[in-house]
Amino acid sequence: MRAISLSIQAKQGTPVTDEKGLAGKRVAVIQATVGDHWLTSTVPTAQAMRFPDYAAALTALKTGAVDAYILDQSIAEKNVTDNPDAKLVVVKSFVTDVPHGFAVKKGNSALLGKIDTGLKQVISDGTWLKLHQQFLPTAPVPAGFQG
Fold it and tell me: What is the spatial distance between Cα 117 and Cα 104, in angstroms, rounded to a whole number?
């Protein structure tokens, strides 16, 4: 498991400045994701609008069907760049410790061991940090992943 950088995304001029501003608002999330879990546990008074994929949630934000959107920081930043006419902003980014990881069939200790060994190797030799800096340069590096 590792920390993940999430963002609150909205349209320019939004009154939402942080998670407190999501109370009572219609907020897009991708169903059954870390963002969905974070929203429902952190801001239970927000109205979670669950979408099957990123494109559908982005369309809802662009058209005003939702007030905000909770998603991975890197995707939120790309949405701003790729959709200049939509006037999107990343209101706030933050690291969450909502548990997530790789699913491995119960009892498949061989595969679990290979994943654990591989992760330890790419963290200790600096590969993980190099890739993180290349693909997620604005996201904080979680503790334990710095090599």
Answer: 14
For the domain 4-96, what is the CATH superfamily, name and number? Periplasmic binding protein-like II (3.40.190.10)
Strand partners, 28: 49, 69
DSSP conformational letter for 141: P
pLDDT tens readout for residues 122-131: 999 999 889 8
Report the alpha-carbon distance of residue 30 to residue 61 in Å, rounded.
Answer: 13
Contacts of 71 (CB under 8 A, 6+ apart): 6, 7, 9, 28, 29, 30, 35, 54, 57, 79
The residue written with tokens 């999330």 in the block is: 29
Q: pTM for the whole thing? A: 0.78
Strand partners, 94: 6
> Which residues are 92's β-sheet partners?
8
What is the secondary structure of 6-20 as a DSSP string? EEEEEETT-S--SGG
Provide φ and ψ at 118, rounded to 5°.
-65, -45
CATH code 3.40.190.10 region(s) in the chain:
4-96
